[in-house]
Design brief:
Elements: E1 2-11, E2 18-28, E3 31-42, H1 46-53, H2 60-84, E4 91-94, E5 97-102, E6 107-111, H3 114-121, E7 125-127, H4 131-135, H5 145-151, E8 157-161, E9 164-171, E10 174-182, H6 184-192, H7 203-206, H8 212-219, H9 234-240, H10 251-263
Parallel strand pairs: 1-4, 4-7
Antiparallel strand pairs: 1-2, 2-3, 5-6, 8-9, 9-10
Helix pairs in contact: 2-3, 6-10, 8-10
Length: 264
């Protein structure tokens, strides 16, 4: 049996924090398995949250600086995580944080300098996972369909609901994967209007009612009628969903409408 220990680092569009996982991967008789050795989510403090929320508005030089500083920040978190949990990783895989995602323009950008992470941890780092796929004409998203195939082959479908919902499945010997719709990105945006990071237990959404005209507009968005491969980003949400929200809509009704939209 072959075994590898790896650290994974991820920051999603919801900006709830930096996710770190220490995993042991093993291969036996051509089949892969995994075991989670340790996992933590480190919440962003107010300063980092503000900087990441405004990153897409920065100049080129300012964004380059943030890339380096954020990579150093991730490296220190990884170092502390490794020390705390007595891990000895062969590799660190860091997704970083997505700032721009426009695959139709051949563009996707995740910040968090891999060189800085390697310097802080003295460990081999792999990063910038999406760019090559986009350069080859792909979407660069979802991120882990091959991982789904190798680690969760017993399941017909793998559904991930994060900032965006995505799905992967086998069809005629090929792994098909695509973003389904926005999810927590929109819900958390709405909750930010009242100074809360999320709708705990969905209580506010449960108190609302579906807004029929908004639901109809959402269901008729062109994206849902496109065939995969396809993916979504912040830019698309701002142009196609946030622009539909009227000040006359009540927050519970908006939340309920979005939840029902995700569910269907």
């Amino acid at each position: 049996m072959v075994k590898y220990t790896a650290i994974g680092i991820m920051s999603g569009t919801s900006l709830d924090g930096v996710d770190l996982a220490g995993c042991e991967f093993s291969q036996q008789n051509g089949k892969w398995a995994f075991k989670i050795l340790a996992a933590e989510t480190i919440p962003y403090n107010e300063e980092w949250l503000f900087r990441m929320q405004k990153a897409h508005l920065l100049s080129g030089l300012e964004l380059s600086r943030l890339n380096v500083e954020y990579g150093r920040f991730l490296g220190r978190l990884a170092y502390d995580f490794i020390f705390k949990h007595h891990l000895n990783p062969a590799i660190i895989a860091s997704h970083g944080h997505t700032i721009f995602h426009q695959p139709s323009a051949g563009l996707t950008l995740q910040i968090g300098s891999g060189a800085e992470i390697a310097a802080q941890t003295r460990t081999t780092v792999v990063c910038d996972f999406r760019s090559l796929d986009v350069a080859l004409g792909g979407q660069g998203a979802p991120l882990v369909p091959i991982g789904d195939r190798l680690l969760f082959a017993d399941y017909r479908f793998c559904l991930n609901i994060g900032g965006f919902a995505n799905i992967s499945f086998e069809e005629n010997g090929r792994r098909i994967a695509f973003d389904v719709c926005p999810a927590n990105f929109v819900l958390n945006f709405l909750m930010g209007k009242i100074g809360k990071p999320f709708d705990e237990d969905g209580k506010i959404a449960a108190s609302g009612k579906v807004i029929p005209e908004l639901s109809n507009q959402l269901n008729h968005l062109g994206y849902y009628h496109q065939n995969p491969p396809k993916s979504l980003g912040r830019e698309w949400v701002e142009a196609n969903i946030l622009s539909l929200f009227s000040e006359n809509y009540h927050l519970p009704d908006l939340l309920r409408t979005i939840v029902e939209h995700i569910a269907h």
